[in-house]
C-alpha cells in the first residue's frame, strides 16, 4: 500500500472524498489495535484537522511517516518538534481562509456592539410593541486593537479602515504598516482600544494571554472579539468580566473546550456566539481541501510542498 494515508480526526466529507479518490484512506478513530498495527508500516501521510492531536506517541508508531497534512491554519495539536526530529514535514492551509475569517471578525464586532441578536430576540418576544430597543454602541471611528498581526490581522485592519477606525496592534515585532500603530505590550494595546480582536496563533506562547488584567485594561466600554483560538482567552476570567461589567461585551467564534460553551455566556444581548465557523464557507472549504490534496500530491511526486510549516 504505497499510497496509504491515515485520517486522525474528523475533516469535511468533501475533503475525505477528494483524498480517497486518489489514495487509500484509513480512519484512525474507527480501527482497533490489530488493524492499526497491520497498516502502521504503510502509512506515509497523516491527514489531520486544526483540532487534531498528532503527538509523539502516534508519530513514533508510524516508522515510515513523512508528512502531516493539516486542514486548517492552526496546528496546535501537532507535535512539530517530534515531527521535525524525524524529518517529517508538516503542511497547513494558509491564505485561502484569511478573508472569511476576517469577514467574520468584522461581523462579530458589529453584531456585539450593535447587539443585533439581542434586538432580534426583542422583536421575537413581542417587546417592540411596548418600547423601543435600548441604545447600543457605535463602531465607526472607534479604536480597534488587533492581537496578532499576521495574515488575518492585516485583513481585519484593511476592513477596519473602511470604518474609519484607528487601528493598533500587538505582535512580536512591528510590521511595515505606517497606517497602524504598534504597541509593545498587550496591556498597552487593550488600554488604548475600544474593540480588542484576537487574531493570534494558538499554542503555549499565547495560552490564556487574555486574562483578568487585560480585560480590565480593555474596560467597561470595551468589546472583545475572538476569531483565533479559544485557548488564548482565560475563559473563567472572561465570564467574570461579562458578569461583572468589567467589559461591555464579546463576540466569540472559538472556545476553550469546544463544543462546550460556558452557560453564563448564553442568551446575553451583549455576547454573540458562533460555532467555530471562521472558514466555513463553501468556497473556502473547497479551496482548503484542494490545497491539502495539492500538498499530498506534491509529496508523493517528490516535488516541493505548497505550504510547508517552517522548522
Automatic annotation (TrEMBL):
Keyword ATP-binding found: no
Residues annotated as domain D-isomer specific 2-hydroxyacid dehydrogenase NAD-binding: 106-278
Record keywords, A-Z: NAD, NADP, Oxidoreductase
Pfam families: 2-Hacid_dh, 2-Hacid_dh_C
Domain of life according to the entry: Bacteria
Gene Ontology terms, MF aspect: glyoxylate reductase (NADPH) activity; hydroxypyruvate reductase [NAD(P)H] activity; NAD binding
Residue ranges constituting the D-isomer specific 2-hydroxyacid dehydrogenase catalytic domain according to the UniProt record: 16-308
InterPro entries the UniProt entry points to: D-isomer_2-hydroxyacid_DH, D-isomer_2_OHA_DH_cat_dom, D-isomer_DH_CS1, D-isomer_DH_NAD-bd, NAD(P)-bd_dom_sf
GO CC aspect terms: cytosol
Keyword Oxidoreductase assigned: yes
Family as reported in the entry's similarity comment: Belongs to the D-isomer specific 2-hydroxyacid dehydrogenase family.
Protein name from the UniProt record: Lactate dehydrogenase-like 2-hydroxyacid dehydrogenase
Organism field: Sodalis ligni
Amino acid at each position: 500500500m504505497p499510497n496509504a494515508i491515515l485520517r486522525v480526526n474528523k475533516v469535511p466529507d468533501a475533503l475525505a472524498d477528494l483524498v480517497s479518490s486518489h489514495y487509500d484512506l484509513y480512519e484512525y478513530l474507527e480501527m482497533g489495535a490489530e488493524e492499526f498495527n497491520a497498516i502502521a508500516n504503510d502509512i506515509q501521510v497523516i491527514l489531520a484537522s486544526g483540532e487534531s492531536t498528532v503527538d509523539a506517541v502516534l508519530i513514533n508508531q508510524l516508522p515510515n511517516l513523512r508528512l502531516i497534512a493539516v486542514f486548517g491554519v492552526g496546528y496546535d495539536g501537532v507535535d512539530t518538534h517530534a515531527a521535525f526530529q524525524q524529518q517529517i514535514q508538516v503542511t497547513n492551509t494558509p491564505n485561502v481562509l484569511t478573508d472569511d475569517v476576517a469577514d467574520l471578525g468584522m461581523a462579530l464586532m458589529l453584531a456585539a456592539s450593535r447587539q443585533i441578536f439581542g434586538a432580534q430576540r426583542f422583536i421575537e418576544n413581542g417587546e417592540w410593541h411596548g418600547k423601543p430597543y435600548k441604545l447600543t454602541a457605535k463602531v465607526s471611528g472607534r479604536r480597534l486593537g488587533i492581537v496578532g498581526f499576521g495574515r488575518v490581522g492585516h485583513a481585519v485592519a484593511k476592513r477596519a479602515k473602511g470604518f474609519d477606525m484607528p487601528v493598533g496592534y500587538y505582535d512580536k515585532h512591528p510590521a511595515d504598516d505606517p497606517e497602524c500603530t504598534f504597541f509593545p505590550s498587550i496591556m498597552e494595546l487593550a488600554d488604548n482600544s475600544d474593540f480588542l480582536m484576537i487574531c493570534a496563533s494558538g499554542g503555549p506562547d499565547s495560552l490564556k494571554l487574555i486574562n483578568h488584567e487585560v480585560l480590565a485594561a480593555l474596560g467597561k466600554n470595551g468589546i472583545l472579539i475572538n476569531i483565533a483560538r479559544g485557548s488564548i482567552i482565560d475563559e473563567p476570567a472572561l465570564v467574570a468580566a461579562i458578569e461583572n461589567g468589567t467589559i461591555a461585551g464579546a463576540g466569540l467564534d472559538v472556545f476553550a473546550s469546544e463544543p462546550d460553551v460556558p452557560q453564563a455566556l448564553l442568551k446575553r444581548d451583549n455576547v454573540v456566539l458562533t460555532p467555530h465557523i471562521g472558514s466555513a464557507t463553501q468556497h473556502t472549504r473547497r479551496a482548503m481541501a484542494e490545497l491539502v490534496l495539492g500538498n499530498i500530491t506534491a509529496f508523493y511526486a517528490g516535488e516541493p510542498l505548497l505550504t510547508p510549516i517552517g522548522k
